[in-house]
Amino acid sequence: MEFGEWLATMLDLSFDYKEAVHLIVLLVLDHDEMVKTLTTRREVMGRINGFIEDDELEFVDAEAIYAAFASMSYGFSLLHDRFAREL
């Protein structure tokens, strides 16, 4: 699976955990230090590193890509209904 296809698949899967995403965000906003926001870090970082190695990309920060991916997943899961209404 190419990176773009994998990313789209992962975003689609985030809808299966919409309630969990909402709860995590509420706990973060409430300054709960116990909640983990990067729960799939090992798996996703391994996949991102694989894409980087396969494409022989240099100077790519896998952790930055993962943080952007996680932010996009959380944000889209939270706001997709609002985006749909506004668009």
Task: List SSEs in N-to-C order.
Answer: HHHH
Query: In angstroms, what is the radius of gyration?
Result: 14 Å
| Beta-strand fraction estimate | under 5%
Helical residue percent band: over 70%
Distance between the termini: 30 Å
Task: Give a short account of the largest sheet.
Answer: none
| Average residue pLDDT | 81
Low-confidence stretches: none
Tell me how many strands there are: 0
Secondary structure category: mainly alpha
Q: Can you count the helices?
A: 4
How would the global form be characterised?
Answer: globular
Q: Quick summary of this structure?
A:
The chain contains four helices and no strands. With 87 residues, it is mostly helical.
Distinctive features:
87 residues, mainly alpha, 4 helices, 72% helix, globular
Structure commentary:
The protein is built from 4 helices and no strands. With 87 residues, the protein is mainly α. The radius of gyration is 14 Å and the shape is globular. The longest helix has 25 residues, at 62-86.
